[in-house]
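Example 3.2
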Amino acid sequence: MLWLLVHGIQHAPRRLVLAAVGVAFPVAVLAATLLLVDDASRAMTRTALAPVQVDMRALATTVNGDGTATARLLAGVGGVQRAERFASAAVTVSVPGSAPSPRGSSPSIRSTSPTTRG
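Structure, written as tokens:
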């Protein structure tokens, strides 16, 4: 059996090289894929275990609500790191003597406390 291997190497060396490359290339691709999947799973695990910041907003149903007292009350709840006042108003803009806009002219005005502005 050994004589057949030696005979094949002597008479067809290119076939041996081609067979070696034909085996080595898929093995290298498989190894690279497995390393990529292993690294990605480690990175995803770190990301999945990282703390998640949850942004929640409360909507006041009356105009005379005390936002400062509500923010103080929420800041005392366990797990809440920060409570800020936030205001939002829907206004209608119109110019006297002009036709109304077909798509409506109601921009949204939003405001936060002066300490959160950049």
